[in-house]
Amino acid sequence: MALEALIDRCKNNEAKAQGELYQLYSAKLFSVCLKYSRNYTEAQDNLQDAFITIFKTIGQFKHKGSFEGWLKRVTVNTVLQKYRKQRVFDLVNEQQIEAEDVVVEDTSVPLDFLLKIIQELPDRYRLVFNLYAMDGYSHNEIAEMLNISAGTSKSNLARARMILKTKITAYNNNSSAEGY
Fold it and tell me: Which of 21, 33, 60, 104 has its CA 20 to 30 A from that of 159?
């Protein structure tokens, strides 16, 4: 019940309520932004943009479904909109690469290294990889969200997986060489 009251106060543009909402959800939404951003600084900018959008559109939330889910959806869409404006998807050749599953044999890769190499992916690959592998969207949903074809989504995912596999293999080879 307290969350509903806080949301209603935010709908009335109460600055104190907006601050409370920010404190309540900024850490979770920052992790979403970090996943879709190139680096920490860009994630901070994306979080700021997401909260601006959230406060502008909070009146659209009708207390049906998960508020946290709505916040995450608004955040992801805000970040994706930024990339759509940058037109990061224009250079994609739709010749499909076989969508093979990438198997990593050694799963002892540190989480910070994984986050770093995901952030280093080209924008179009990083966004598709996160939407598909991390957030569970289908290629058709990704295609609609990013204004690309499902084939382009599949191709971008396959390329992202190949890049990640190469970097993880190199990391594992360097780690095992240092162990001797």
Answer: 33
